[in-house]
Amino acid sequence: MSQNQLDNQSSIDKADLEKLSKEAEQEAAPSSLRIVWNEFKADKVALTAAVIIVVFILFVMIASLFINQSQAMSTNIMDSYDKPFSQFILGTDQGGRSVAKELIMGSKNSIGIAIGLTVISSTFGIVFGLVSGYFGGIVDNIMMRFYDFMMMLPILLFIIVVVTIIPSYNAITLTLILSVFYWLGTARLIRARTMSESKKDYVSASKTSGTSTFKIIFREIMPNISSLIIVDTMLSFAENIGVETTLSFLGFGLPNGTPSLGTMISNANDPNNITQYWWTWLIAAIEIIILTISISYVGQVIRRASDASQRLSDD
């Protein structure tokens, strides 16, 4: 065979290889990020909700850097109850404090507490549920007796007592106090699903092959219940925003002088504020409603994407 024929054959082989590689790429399963993006594109409401969450959190975190909290919370009676779009864009409260600045600082504190509480409580609850559900038997009995003891405690009253006893605390301290109690629902949910998963064939096969317990729990079982974990975490995040808001509304949240969405909504305790000075509480209430609904929509999309990714991996 001549040199020209060899060169032509080589070029044909390279073209065939490139064609086959392109076909393989097209037939390959899409990545997890691609699946998530496709789900968001298919659900415009959820995509809008995700944009709202991201833009709002970025705006709050950046804007709070330019606000001096002590100055923003200082009292100025001369500006008391200024209406929105007068001297101040969102008006002022009884103490003449800017509602816009309070809203930014309060959102930062409330969202920060909710994120910290979700990370700590969900992590502990997931690990607790996985270990309890996987081992079962005496390990499960001991762990569930501890769970039952925690469930018997009047959580809200206990938190109020602890907050009242502590002489001084901040957002980090409050987050740690709440984290002691708000892992229970996650633990129960994950335990029930883990008990079901641990009876399946792939877990038995892993045990037979000598796979370590740690790998079975966290590399095999946990990915298979990832959709449940994602949904529970997103719902917990939305709920945890309400937890801080409720405590602050009752007067047992963040210390006086520390703005939060709950302290702003507590202005509605005054009948005059409900009817005449609505801007001191209504804007914060609307913000919480929009955030919680948006988080719920995003959680549903991520759950669907996780289910789709798991089905493709099984295939």
Automatic annotation (TrEMBL):
Residues 107-299 form the ABC transmembrane type-1 domain. InterPro entries: BP-dependent_transpt_permease, MetI-like, MetI-like_sf, OppC_N. The keyword Transmembrane applies. Coiled coil: none annotated. It is found in: Cell membrane. The chain crosses the membrane at residues 45-67, 111-134, 146-166, 221-238, 278-302. Keywords: Cell membrane, Membrane, Transmembrane, Transmembrane helix, Transport. Its main location: membrane. Belongs to the binding-protein-dependent transport system permease family. This is ABC transporter permease.
